[in-house]
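Hi W., the 3-isopropylmalic acid complex you wanted:
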Amino acid sequence: MKYRICVLPGDGIGPEVVEQAVKVLKALPLELEFTYGEIGYGCYLKKGDALPEETIKKVEKADATLFGAVTTPPNIENYSSAILRLRQHFDLYANLRPCRSFPHEISQKGISMYIVRENTEDLYSGVERVEDNGNKAVTEMIITRKGSERIIRYAFELAREKNLRKVTVVHKANVLRETCGLFRKVALEIAKEYPAIEMQEMLVDACAMQLIKNPGQFEIIVTTNMFGDILSDEASMLVGGLGLAYSGNIGKEKAVFEPVHGSAPKYAGKNVANPAAAILAAKLMLEFLGEDEAAKKVGDAVMSAIEEGDVTQDLGGKLTTEQAGDAVARRIK
Ligand code: IPM
Ligand code: MN
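Structure:
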């Protein structure tokens, strides 16, 4: 079976970490064909667009896409983050963020959860305006039945597939009565279709607290876009931080896999960034493609490298980005 993989390295440390993920993928006994596309601020400076049409076409033609990171300049008017545009363009409605203990002292033990973050609406709607001569700013929080239904169903289906028993629906319906109220109402309806799975509700502030107090209680958290953005960064710190956090942006047709960390311009070109998150994003991509055996090989290789201290400085090791990639690639059996 031959898969076409689109690779979008992006800015900052994106290219360095993605290169390691590609190296690991090439060590697998799979037939993969890689096409590279340009994206991000560097691409904007060169071509006048952070997400040019030819990049969109490459994603379209691929079976899956591996994305690095992009820089978003704060002071260019009407510039919107290339990853947000990619999510919107391909309607990648589910942002899947696994959060699992790693065999390392900086990770707490006994944690195994998925954060399922809605990825297209809420405060990320892009509907913003300034009123009253610049003295009032409005960003619309948009929640739809369709958007809520598909993300909540995604979470329950994931629970079924992974044999999990509990889905925690996180919202703030006590204050955001309309938007979160709708999300909650849809969740209660959908939960009825899955009698074998318990649905638990939790307010987002309580969830932020419980993630610190008793993270082992969570199996699947499903929530709206902005809450998911914040909670997933928090959760990542329980198991080793952003150097290890990975995600998939999944739609009906297309999917884009990425490390959760940003482009970290400060570390760009220094060969110090931890490639593990990008490599684990590639593992999630293999699962999406149905290549479970290959995915397991990648996961096992990363775990063994971490366990044996073959890691970058952020995890207390001595390896460069490149060496850390090699350390995983040579453990692929
Ligand atoms: C993430 C990031 C993005 C987001 C940024 C880069 C726009 O923080 O993937 O979590 O807010 O979704
Ligand atoms: Mn984020």
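The chain has a mean pLDDT of 97.

W.
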